[in-house]
Amino acid sequence: MAPLTKLPEQTQRTKAELQEAFWRLYTQQPMESITVQQVCDLAGYTRGTFYLHFHDRYEILEGIEAQLLDDTTACVEACMRRLAKNSSKLSCVAALADVVSFYERNKSRIVVLLGSKGDPAFVVRLKDRLKPLWRQYVVGESSELSEQEIDLLLEYTLSGSLFMLSRWLQEPGDVSASQLGHLIYDAAIKDVSLRAK
């Protein structure tokens, strides 16, 4: 019976190793040039093992993106719930520090996925996940703006915030995480809140 209980652990480890091998290739070359054989060679598995776990290389990328989308959404939602309790600038910047820390911990994936090598559809899905949260917690229900105006405003501020974070992760220079939080608050939260009232 002992070997059967270890089977799920082995399966998870194999999948993780194939995902990691894919990711290493994805950070170095375009998706179109990555082959299943390259992934298998780098991970040390056969093509048969690959196909036991994944349909194709796109499924691996989708899984990586889906996990990051779920984790980002959970982090931002926790931040927004904190802002709903106390929307002072100090509280907002403190909550944003958690989001910035999350992005720092996931830097290796976020920089690639939001960068020129990333999947443009990932950015669209990320903004689609975050818009309802910003709509609920930043804009609120009492807005006098039309739905289209709100959508355009959120598109602008989310795009700017995401690319500001991505750029900062690539080249933080002398801007601290706290300073970045202040910039995001001033450019994306305060201004949206004021315009939406």
Please write out the topology:
Elements: H1 2-26, H2 36-43, H3 47-53, H4 57-85, H5 89-105, H6 107-114, H7 120-139, H8 147-170, H9 177-196
Helix pairs in contact: 1-2, 1-4, 4-5, 4-7, 5-9, 6-8, 7-8, 8-9
Major sheet: none
How many discrete structural domains? 2
Oligomer: single chain
Q: Uncertain spans, ≥5 residues at pLDDT below 50?
A: 1-5
Average residue-wise pLDDT: 85
Number of helices: 9
**Spatial extent as radius of gyration:** 20 Å
Give the end-to-end Cα distance, rounded to a whole number of Å.
63 Å
Q: What helical percentage do the residues reach?
A: over 70%
Tally the beta strands.
0
Question: What is the molecular shape?
Answer: elongated
Which structural class best describes the helix and strand composition?
mainly alpha
Which range does the strand content fall in? under 5%
H/E element order: HHHHHHHHH
